[in-house]
Each structure stands twice: as structure tokens, then as C-alpha cells.
Amino acid sequence: MKVEQKKMQNALMESKDLSVFYGEYEAVKKASIPIYEKTVTAVIGPSGCGKSTFVRSLNRMNELIPGVEVKGEVLYHGDNIYDSKVDPVNLRRRIGMVFQKPNPFPKSISQNVSWGPKINGMTDALDDRVEEALKKAALWDEVKDKLDQNGLSLSGGQQQRLCIARAIAMEPEVILMDEPCSALDPISTGRVEDLLFELKKKYTIVIVTHNMQQAARISDHTAFMYQGDVIEFDETKKIFTRPSKKQTEDYVTGKFG
Amino acid sequence: MSWNETKQLKKRKILGKIFSGLCTMAAFSSVVLLVVLLSKVFFDGWAYLDWQFVTSFPSRFFEKAGIQSALMGSLWVISLTCMIAVPIGVGASIYLEEFAPKNRFTHLIHLNISNLAGVPSIVYGILGLVIFVRGFGFGRSILSASLTTALLILPIIIIASKEAIKSIPNSTRYAALALGASKWQTVRDHVIPSALPSIMTGMILAISRAIGESAPLLIIGALGYVAFNPQGPMDAFTVLPIQIFNWAARPQAEFHQLAAAGIIVLLVVLLLMNSIAIFIRYRYQRKLR
Ligand SMILES: Nc1ncnc2c1ncn2[C@@H]1O[C@H](COP(=O)(O)OP(=O)(O)OP(=O)(O)O)[C@@H](O)[C@H]1O
Ligand SMILES: [Mg+2]
């Protein structure tokens, strides 16, 4: 408990009674989850329980969907990101996102990576930045000879790592990942998972996943959601070995979901 | 062998054959019609189609008559029309698709634009006469004609560009916005470049329509006989379709052949404009690859 409280204090982000509505429908109900610096937080739960909705509300991407309403707050460095003084454009520079389906721009590999820094005025040594990001995303060796090729010509797994490189190039503090491996084969998935271990040395990661083993392998904390409620949040080890709620146990042991 | 029952399958196959036959016939009949029309035009006009025809001004004497002033008039009107209609049309479609709120009012605008595309061109002519020729006092000039034609093709450009922009998947926009891009940066660097080939296709359609229009320009006051090239946007003018009509309406057979030659020139201009647009589109698509 003491350890928990100490960690609570240096949570980099924290959702507090966060509710998200699609019109009348409450997709996330009063979710309160801390996200600790330089750790991986997994969000698990059956389909439709609100995982994507929750993650999207951490960098205000949900605002792009018409009819979405948010109640409660998300603290980032202690400030509520839903405060009217916060510009979502600024926020998303710091909190990057990788989507479920790889979505490279229909541009060259290097342009895919350099575009973010470029539009944000980080134009010095752009080539080095591209190289570094691609290296960190474990893609450099595969693409270093064809940086001018279209990003869409890569395989699905490579595309997803390109999207990760694109997010890293912005040097964000937090990277949100919504089922980044669901469109990938096991080998590409393994690559991305290895990558996550590397990335969490520098970045704070929130990852949505359907894959229980994946959550157990890669995350430090796990939140279990069910029908919009956060049923349980704890250290991953505890969630998967001795969860305190019956529903969590049923889910992680595969009894439902 | 009840699973291998063939009677019903045969019937379905025959039906399929009949349908594809009908479709082929429909396609062929239009192609045949086009070929007949074109060969008639070429047959009639070929004799008069030479460099002298292109470089001469119209005349009462058919041996000396040419199409230069109409050709120049058409080029002036089309260029000016594009300069006016393309930025406004593409801009409007970007606003409507990307920035405008989705409410009743904008819905009404969308609906109206679709309806405007179906308004007869002569109505635009009357509008142009009242607003540009008289209202703004631009007179019976190239400028009035271009503004009127621009109004006429704006709905076509807007609708085509809107569809092009709509077809860009949201995942592209989300990818850009998630990098901390502003809406405008997203649209400028990703939406417009991806939509450009389809926008160009709409532009080709619009230009083709504009270059063949004569009714609204007659109302605006394009002249039937112009023996000089326009020097500026405020000059009087004629255009190819009107010159062609003028010749075709005369009793002498020779002038009918001149009309045919004029049609060939019009077709060449049309094809040239289209190939320029297709070339740009091709270049762009290759760059994207
Ligand atoms: N754009 C939307 N408009 C209306 N309702 C939505 C929208 N997106 C999601 N929902 C609803 O909100 C609930 C949560 O959806 P969400 O996408 O967050 O689930 P999820 O946990 O990510 O599911 P999955 O594992 O299948 O991706 C679902 O019931 C869904 O129907
Ligand atoms: Mg989801």
C-alpha cells in the first residue's frame, strides 16, 4: 500500500471520474486510472467495453467524433487536459498515438516520419531525426535503402512500426496504442512487443489489447474494463495471479469475453 | 444427384447472357453513333481545315474565312473561367467537407449545389446578363462571359471535389491530427494531395462543359462576327460554338463545311485541354506512388 501511494504521487497522467458519452450512451463510466511515468499500462476487456474510447480521451482524439461529450478530468502534469486553456493540437504533440490499423500517409517512408517534426517547427537535422526514429522503431535496417519508397508499399507489420516511428519522431512523452498488433502476424507482433520494452525506457505507454498473454508479458499495470466501468486497476502481476474481483478473474482466465 | 440439378442453373445462365447482351448493345449503339457523327464531321470539314483556316478571321467569302478570333475568344474565356472557378470551387468544397459544421444550414447548401448543377445553362446566361453585364457594368466582354461560365461550372467542380475529399479515409486525417497537426496542416498536406487526382477529373468534366457552351454566351452578347483578336478581358469576343453555329445557319453549303472544320478545331481544343489535365493528374499519381 505504501508503495502504491508513493507511485500515485508521480503518476504522469491520471483520469479522474472520466465519463465519455456518445450522445446519450455512456461508453466510459467514471474511470479513474493513474498512468505512471515510463511504464506500460495495458487496458483489457471484452469488445465494446470502452477501451478505445478511454484511450482516445487521453489525447482528446475523441473530440473528432461528432456527438462525443466528456465529463470528469484527465490530469497531465497535474493540469486538466479538458481545461478550456488547453489546445488539443499542443496536447497531441506531447501525447502521440498509434492506431489499430496501420495508417501510414501515402507518402515516402522518410516523409512519413519527418512530417510531424516538420509541421511542428522541429526542422533542424531532420534526416538524423528520421533515422533515429526508424532505429528506435526497429525498422531502420529494413528500410534504410528505400526511404523514398511509398510507406504503403511496406508489409503490415512494417507499416505499423513505421507508424510507431512516426509517433516517436515527435519525441512525445506518452504514446497511446490502440490494439497496435491486432492486424499483425505473430512474428511482427513479437517485434512490436520487443520494441515496447525498449520504448518504455524513454516513454510512457498506454496500450489497448485483446491479447491476454500480451498484456501479461509487456505491461506493468493493467486496467480491466467491463461495459464502460473500470472493474479493476492494479499491477499486472496481481491482476493476472490474484485479482481482487471475480469478474477480472473470470476474464483473465478465459471464462468469458 | 440432387445437388447437381442443372435446369435452374441453365436458366440463370441464359438470363445472365441476355442481360450482358443488352448492356453490350447499349454500349455499342452509343459508340457507333459517335463514330458516325465524327466521321461525318471529318468528311465535311477536312477540305477546309488548314493553317489558313486557323489563322484567318471570319469573312463573307468562305475561301478566306477562318476561325482565329473565335479560337482566341474561346481560349480567353476558358482560361479566365478556370482562374475564377477552380480556386473558388475547390475552396468551397474544402470548406464544406472539412470545416463547415454539419447542421441544417450547411445541409441546405449541399442540397442546393446539387440542384444548381442541373439548372439549364440559359438561366445562367440571364443571370450573367443582369449581374455582370448590366449590374457591374462589365458590358458584353470576355470578363462577363468568364464570370457567367464560371458560375455555370462551379457546381460541377464543387460536387466533384467534395466527392474526392469525402473519399479520403478518416484514418489519414486522424494520423495527421494525432501528430499535433492543425486542421489546416492536415488538409493542406494530406487531404488535398490525395484528393487531387479525382479533383482533376472533375475539372476535366467542367472544362469540357464550359468550352462547348453557347447559349449563355449568346445571351451575354457574344458577337457573331468578330474580325479581331481580343486583347484583354474587357474586349468584345466570340467563341467557337457560336462561330460554328453562325456558319451552320447560313444557306450556302460551303459554310456548312466551314462549320464542320470549326467543330474539328473545337474538338482538338477540348482534347488538348483534357490531355493537359490528365497529364497533371498522372504526374501527381506517380509522385504519390
Ligand atoms: N463513434 C461512435 N458513436 C457511437 N457509439 C460508439 C462510437 N464508438 C464507439 N461507440 C460505442 O461505445 C462503446 C465502446 O466502444 P469502444 O470502441 O470504446 O470499445 P472497445 O472496448 O474499444 O471495443 P473493441 O475491443 O471492439 O475495439 C461501444 O458500445 C460502441 O458501440
Ligand atoms: Mg477498440
Describe the structure in your own words.
- The complex is a heterodimer of chains A (257) and B (289).
- Chain A is of the alpha/beta class and 257 residues long.
- Chain A has one domain: P-loop containing nucleotide triphosphate hydrolases (Rossmann fold, 3-Layer(aba) Sandwich), CATH 3.40.50.
- Helices cover 37% and strands 26% of the residues of chain A.
- Chain A has helices at residues 2-9, 51-56, 88-94, 109-119, 126-136, 140-143, 156-168, 186-199, 212-218, 236-241, 246-252; strands spanning 11-22, 25-36, 40-44, 68-76, 79-80, 95-98, 174-178, 204-208, 221-226, 229-235.
- In chain A, strand 4 (68-76) and strand 5 (79-80) form a beta hairpin.
- Chain B has 289 residues and is mostly helical.
- Chain B has 2 domains: 3-48; 54-288, Orthogonal Bundle (MetI-like fold), CATH 1.10.3720.10.
- In chain B, 75% of the residues lie in helices and 0% in strands.
- Chain B has 11 helices and no strands.
- Chain B has helices at 7-45, 51-55, 68-99, 104-116, 121-135, 142-166, 170-177, 183-212, 215-220, 240-248, 253-288.
- In chain B, helix 1 (7-45) crosses helix 11 (253-288), helix 3 (68-99) runs antiparallel to helix 8 and helix 7 (170-177) runs antiparallel to helix 8.
- The termini of chain B are far apart.
- The mean pLDDT of chain B is 90.
- The interface between A and B is medium-sized, with 28 and 20 residues.
- The structure holds adenosine-5'-triphosphate and magnesium ion (MG).
